[in-house]
Amino acid sequence: MEQLSVKGKYIYKGDKPFFMLADTAWLLYDKLEDEEIELYYKNRRGLGFNTIFAVAVYSDPRFETQDGMPHGNKDINSLDYWNAVSRNIDVAEKYGLYVALLPAWGSFVKKGYINCDNVQKYADFLGDFFKEKQNLIWVIGGDVRGDTNFEVFDTLGRTLKRCNPERLITYHPFGRTGSYLWFNDCQWLDFNTFQSGHRRYDQLKLNVWDDNSSNEDSFGEDNWKYVAKNFSYDKVKPCMDAEPSYEGIVQGLHDFSQPYWEARDVRRYAYWSVFEGACGFTYGNNAVIQFYRQGERRAYGVRETWLEGLHACGGSQMQYLKAIMESVDFVNGEAHPEYVLNQGEKYHRTSVFAGKDFVLCYNYCGDTIELCLKDYSGRTFDAYWINPENGSRSYINTFLCGEGELNFSPAPRHELSNDWVLALLFV
Known about the structure:
By secondary structure, the chain is an alpha/beta fold. The chain contains twelve helices and 20 strands. The longest helix is centred in the first third of the chain and has 16 residues.
């Protein structure tokens, strides 16, 4: 497999744009055996995913680091464990998958188990042990603020980049923050991620451990705003939502009487962020991220086993977003919310992503979309409605762009899911 690279706001595989569609599998190597891991890979590849986020060291029986999730019984101090991780990264390559690997979950740094005295030794080991892997991406952090111990994270990043300068590195941050807050100017950081998180608009402050402790912008469910903020920095790097609300997790995480985030919510996060210019999207399912088995402690209200979670609706629907993006020249596209004349707020916002030969619009509520496309005046386009639940494309008509207003009203699908993509393809 070719190693990935960054050009401008996007990621490339060789000379071709690479839309990163990632799945979250934090405890993959901690809990599953080889045959289960291969089953997982085959399922995810079949659903269009091309990248897997996993943790090399999520837990250690000597330390309290689980952060609420059950963990496996593997001995991370044994070379057998590391050989198994290495072997299974090779299996991922067989299926055309990149592995975005965290050296350790962020709580190891937050609690001081990985610190300035030992981080260099660990970073040197990782850099040497995995130096031959072509399908590896390094992910520093792990649900933790970058200023928890900047020097530790910076040492990890600099060392891993020195060991393999061609390998991409990013940082997975704390909820409702982005890696750009601390590392955007670091040479080792190739692209940013943000964690829009698992809270509703009305849940920004719950007085629990995952409240933000500082005053950086928190945008609630408006995850597209994190993309816009990323691009506001002088040094522009690609970015993506690396932890939106997981399918099948309770809203807010902590009160199990609350409703669950469902497939329709995942789609909203995906299309909002990507149509703002994100280089990809990371899906997550509550059962799969922790590889929950019947009888284990139910972290975050998990409601199904991981084998059942593999087939959840939201996970199977992400491939349609990837197909839409790969059907257009997305690396030369940009967000154009100003094209919308009846722009709404929160759930009623219409996202617009446009390039020379296309305009893509997403509305979560099935609202009428009123557009002014004077930038394309005199050009003809075919219009389609795309159903993000099944990828079906329905031709509307062929139009000539002028200075006036264009109105598009989708047909209602059903009460709870009425989101639509409007695709205008210029001919």
